[in-house]
Amino acid sequence: MQVHIRKARVIDPQSKYHDKIVDLLIEDGIIINIAASIKSDADTVIEGKGLHISPGWVDVFADYREPGFEHKETIASGLAAAAAGGFTDVLLSPGTQPALSTKSIIQYVLQKAGGNIVGLHPIGAATQNTDGKDLAEMLDMRENGAIAFSDGWKPIQNANLMLKALEYVKAFNGTVIQIPIDATLSSGGLMNEGIISTGLGMAGIPALAETIMVHRDIELVRYTGSKLHFTGISTTESVEMIRKAKAEGLTITCSVTPYHLALTDESLTGYDSIYKVAPPLRSETDRLALIEGLKDGTIDCIASHHRPHEWDAKAKEFEYAADGMAVQEITFNILWDTLKEYLTIERLVEALAIIPRDIFGLESWEIKKGNKAGITIFSTGGDHTLSLDNIKSLSRNNPFIGKKLSGKVVGIINNDQLYLNK
């Protein structure tokens, strides 16, 4: 297969072609030529106004629910959503049934994803079946393809167990991923604790439920010298604590969801459970602090927290509705629509493509002649509207469906395959 990309602006700070408009010729999955202009008889020519190319984007936390919850999402439908969203690589949450806590389940999901244009990288469970009681066989899973370790949507509550997990992964330079939620402080809460929750008469989840966990785990990293990644941070205090921990030299990184950057707790004034997520949507002050943290590099990268649900898991009383949004295929559009006034496309590409590869040890795909073509093709101009008839995910728990958002994902090239959005 030969693909010719014409007149595209390169967004790749690693590359000597960064910020230059070039033609790219790709054959059999390899970049064979980069120049101001190329003549070819390629099978496919991609061109258009305002075209950009970058190394392939990485989603550092998504849930495809297979095995166990295939009525919500399958690996195949999840990877289709990822490709539509411009992601060439996805880190898969262990929140399946059974959980990704043994080498056989790790091998199963890798086999199911084999040959796909999107690379799937399972996150192994840190504890057996994510039950928070005993450590899982992390080394065994690591040797069979697990990229990092986490209990996913069930954060490790026991400090001693978290300490042991951080010590264990040091043996192979591994990383633990934690959603910072203290279950005792968030128990019974339905949304962010504040003026909005008080006015609505809904039980609140205090920022302390997150910040106390961030503080605890920073101290555990300081004690062990291990590596920790916080995903889904949502408060001003979390950003500041992580900023100070990084300045101290601790090996701590973090990611933020697109919806925490775009939305606040004011979205819940209509009691719509589509906006019920964990951690909850916070205040406008918190949202702006997250944007500033992403802008200055305190927040390293993006995690879609793609969490698909069937209709009746969300269409019930708010108290009983499931947490989560399925937004992976429009993550870029949400981000660019929200952030274009605050940060450059170069910084956003760093967060989507370059820094997550460094954190999790994925191959770095510099746009360079002779390198493998792992590329996302996109435009910052124009707009995109996700409609019910073009959505790739099996689930519809997405409050952005039908809304016009900035930017467009044209497609991806990876594993000697091409995917283009229609």
Q: Using only CA atoms, what is the Rg?
A: 21 Å
CATH architecture of the largest domain: Alpha-Beta Barrel
Structural class: alpha/beta
CATH superfamily of the largest domain: Metal-dependent hydrolases
Summed over residues and divided by their number, the pLDDT gives a mean of 97
Largest sheet: 8 strands, mixed
Number of helical segments?
13
Unreliably modeled segments = none
- Which percent range fits the helix content? 25-40%
CATH topology of the largest domain: TIM Barrel
Instruction: Return the CATH class of the largest domain.
Output: Alpha Beta
Distance N terminus to C terminus?
20 Å
- Overall tally of structural domains: 2
Percent strand equals 15-25%
Overview of this structure, please?
The protein has 422 residues and is α/β, with parallel strands linked by helices. It has 2 domains: 85 residues, Urease, subunit C, domain 1 (Roll), CATH 2.30.40; 305 residues, Metal-dependent hydrolases (TIM Barrel, Alpha-Beta Barrel). The chain is 30% helix and 23% strand. The strands form 4 sheets. Strands 1, 2, 3, 4, 5, 16, 17 and 18 form an 8-stranded mixed sheet that branches. Helix 4 packs across helix 7, helix 7 runs parallel beside helix 8 and helix 8 packs parallel to helix 10. The mean pLDDT is 97.
